[in-house]
């Protein structure tokens, strides 16, 4: 799951920002190189909340969490990263990820949003993933606020299939960022209006 979207989103971007940015710069900020990760024995933890309509296969999460932790690869005894997702009903381990690779939490968030949208609309996760990839690479806005740098993207507003997306054409991806070497503080995917009422929100604790 994670390897697929990591490959799809392999943009190799660096931080470029100030004011409202032209196409590409918002994605650069989100995909800034935050590695190599040095957790020093302290896990990083994000709260996790997911809501949406009752559809078979869709898992809402009231009060969950995602922890980024460091482990040891048993095959070569080298340090790696893992994610531990805890929901209302289960705990699962995701990884491993390389210490010096991309942001595992960002990868997790984007794949979660992609799969949720596919389940709730019946659309192709490959199509959805590619549209999100294009939006993050080429579009978006980045602004300065008191609580940090905010990057926003709307991947489907001009999509030719927007009329068949059941409200997901309004999807907005929002990222609250600090220093480019620091973890992303908040990640949020949200549709506008009551239908479908989808939210995927993570906040660094």
UniProtKB/TrEMBL annotation:
The organism's place on the tree of life at top rank: Bacteria
UniProt cross-references to PROSITE patterns, sorted A to Z: PUA (PS50890)
Cleaved signal peptide residues: 1-23
Lineage: Bacteria, Pseudomonadati, Pseudomonadota, Alphaproteobacteria, Rhodobacterales
Organism: Paracoccus sediminis
Keywords assigned by UniProt, alphabetized: Signal
Protein name stated in the entry: Uncharacterized protein
Signal found in the keyword field: yes
